[in-house]
UniProtKB/TrEMBL annotation:
InterPro entries: Asp/Glu-ADT_sf_sub_c (IPR036113), GatC (IPR003837). Heterotrimer of A, B and C subunits. SUPFAM superfamilies: Glu-tRNAGln amidotransferase C subunit. HAMAP family: GatC. This is Aspartyl/glutamyl-tRNA(Asn/Gln) amidotransferase subunit C. It comes from Telmatobacter sp. DSM 110680. The gene is gatC.
Amino acid sequence: MTANVTLQDVKRVAELAHLELTPTETESMQHDLNAILDHVAQLNELDTDSVAPLAQMSELAGAGSAGSLREDVVRPSLNRTAVMSEAPETDQVFFKVPKVIER
């Protein structure tokens, strides 16, 4: 099975994601998406009938034991005043950052 993401598909997704892609980037993205979908199609050919479904990776044998994950312990949060004093620009409640989305 060969995936068939078209240039129009890539342009539409880029538009929805507010991305401006050059023609070269659009073609590269088309190639990459088709490669990813081809790989997923290959994975779908695997026989997984004997594999138990998992909701989370922590359900795997050995995962979630005391050695693999840190203990879930309530700890005090960072001190806001100390954190804000290290920020380049703040209003003492939030970090101020440059606007990154133009619309």
